[in-house]
Amino acid sequence: MSEKSYLTTDYTLKSWFLTTDHKRIAILYFASLIFFFFIGGAAATVIRIELATPQGDIVSSDIYNRLFTMHGIIMVWFFLIPSIPNTLGNFIVPLMIGARDLAFPRLNLMSWYIFMLGGCTTLFAILAGGVDTGWTFYTPFSTLYSNSYVIVAAAGVFIAGFSSILTGLNFIVTIHRLRAPGLTWYRLPLFLWSLYATSVILVLATPVLAITLLLIAVERFFGVGIFDPRIGGDPLLFQHLFWFYSHPAVYIMILPGMGVINELISCFSRKQVFGYKFVAWCSLAIAAVGFLVWGHHMFVSGQSLIASLVFSFMSFIVAVPSAIKVFNWTATLHKGLLRFDAPMLYALGFIGLFTIGGLTGLFLACLAFDVHATDTYFVVAHFHYIMVGGMVTAYFGGLHYWWPKITGRLYSEYWARAAAVLIFFGFNLTFFPQFILGAEGMPRRYHVYPPEFQVWNVLSSGGAAILAVAYLMPLFYLGYSAFFGARAPANPWDAPGLEWQTSSPPPEHNFTTQPVVTRAPYQYDRDFHAEPQNA
Amino acid sequence: MWRQWIPFWQPGLSPQSGDVDLLFAGLLMTSALVLGILFFLLTLFCVRYRAGNLIDREDHIAKSWHWEVGWTTASLACFVGLFVWGASVYFEMYKTPADELVVFVVAKQWMWKTQHPGGQAEINALHVPTNRPVRLVMASQDVIHSFFIPALRLKHDVVPGRYQDIEIEVDRPGTYHLFCAEYCGTDHSGMIGEIVAMEPADFSNWLTRQAPSSSLAGEGGALFRELGCSGCHGPGSKIRAPPLEGLYGRPVPLSDGSTAIADDKYIRDSILLPRSQIVASYEPLMPSFEGKVSEEQLLRLVMYIKSLAGHRS
Description:
The complex is a heterodimer of chains A (535) and B (313).
Chain A: H1 13-17, H2 22-50, H3 61-97, H4 105-128, H5 141-145, H6 150-177, H7 190-222, H8 235-269, H9 276-289, H10 305-333, H11 342-365, H12 367-373, H13 377-407, H14 413-440, H15 454-484
Helix pairs in contact in A: 2-3, 2-4, 2-15, 3-4, 3-6, 3-8, 3-13, 4-6, 6-7, 7-8, 7-9, 8-10, 8-11, 8-13, 9-10, 10-11, 11-13, 11-14, 13-14, 14-15
Chain B: H1 15-48, H2 66-93, E1 102-108, E2 111-115, E3 121-123, E4 125-129, E5 134-140, E6 145-149, E7 154-158, E8 164-168, E9 174-180, E10 193-198, H3 200-210, H4 216-226, H5 230-233, E11 251-253, E12 259-261, H6 264-272, H7 295-307
Helix pairs in contact in B: 1-2, 4-7, 6-7
């Protein structure tokens, strides 16, 4: 090797914890996110075991409420929102645009420290006694009635928000300023378009969440009537502010996932993404319209019927660009040269799960049906299809795709495919029964439930057991590959992206010579008959 | 019957819930169609264009925007159709409730307390006659709850600080679930009750059997005197306060020139926030009763004032 890779430049702890190399910071994020994913997953495991029987026989109701709150807070703010942008994005963005690093390397490191500070604050709240408000912190329950560590947990989320804002800013500036010569906007890989759209949401929406959490603290500490009607506040004001952030946050979670899928579908069909410009602008359209749909969480809250009408309409509109993407991915497969390596299996699984999640989103956008389905397991199933079936599946796909680049090692293709298939089946068995539970009327966040709902809950818990095993598998075979896997070539997938034009793993400053871009992205040659290089 | 086509689905039991079921069936069929086409194409492409398969891969489809415009327009048209359908049923569900039969619902951690105008009170249960619209006036004593009857496909949040009213109607006698659907703390999942729908004759028998010594309006009258309201609003009072006889349901001219209808919400607000709506040509003298009366006392006062509607002063 002509130059040392970023992994071998230095081995000291200091070289990791004070690094400004985007690739090492991505690894720091990666390690922290695995940790949070398994904490959130452990809470989910206990929840599903508890729900296997209709009685509350494993944990008390207070513990149950704390568990689902912990599951929600950890998964949303400390796994789903940061996962793709902060690990894959941090690692790949500069490589994809042919830059040496992000625009603000030290700010990037600071983002990780802020994120960890927020994460530890929230963990402290959970260990010290827990939070029982649900991840939505609805007032006046959270401000006046909850005897738990609401303020500490909210402080953790508040702090982590700054990390999101800084990461978003860093990406926006990087994509604007550091593109290699010749890399025009329409030559940008679609992963970057989607991360760009995500960053815009991060920068614009996160401050609203910060302000909302601050207002909760003000009301709790000083008794200023903001959300509590007894002192002159309005409980619905909280919901408006909260969802003004949290609905766009859903797109923070899913847009990067869609971006990853473009890369995978294109690479394993050896074709340019069908309708590149449409897909690119759809990302921005989703980001823009996504700001105008928050009220669809409040169709039964007592907001005016006209407001509901507008929010319902906008929710249908925002589904159009998502539908376009699904059609474009399918059209990309047409006349492709399809290979079913593990990343491709994840990508195909994503299309199926995301489509089911999206279609059931239409059910919920539909006013009269939402009245019945909201706050039931139908909603739980729907957003798990989008976030877990969609985003987490895309994350795993992206992780497998770029794993040789990140670690310089190849993983076991056999085990990777097995895990991808198992995740798909485990996921469907876990969450599809929840649509039926919701349609039958089982409310969410129930610790004890009427016995007629048990059959579907048992199926769901069984599926969760499969899913848990499937999510643990990559930990082993990827962990093994990181240390003992075969050496990866620079371009194991024979892909044209800039990130594949440097060695695996890349040297400290990414490229030995400045790459120059002369053509549109995804110019695959159709000669992909060679045996997979990672056996 | 088309409702039986959907497996595991108990048909709804009110006129509006039938419309919701139809809408659900429509959504299911649309989704099944879209998913069917998508999965068919995915499978077809995956099999035909797999790497080992020697097949013509020359790009016959010209890269034009016709495809995108086509499926964008199709999606949009389909979505707008579903939107209009869903919205029209929604407006039907949340239409202004009938005023003929009223039941009060007070939600508190962790129970539903329901009260009939005759004073019959129930905990975690609500008896209603079949085939007759019932107006529910709901208030919360503490946090947000949500009143949810799956059999009627109907749900409404009960937000503290305001009255919510909805209309329910049950087609068939029986006992149905009443859930709290909005997370409200420790025993959220224990905050469940039942809706007992009875034939009208059985219902009036039940009402008679349960009848307490005094009605809600009667108790409200006692409270009215106890709280000192009668000192100003009563007949022969020396202080100038608006008379309450014949007030309910009528328009009230306000000092800012606007007019308000004296309904439940107006009376409730006038007791809790008397200075927000000053009746024209009266001085803002009344103290607020915020924090001094509970939701249950409030609705007794409302019932009392409502009972005065027939008398003209």
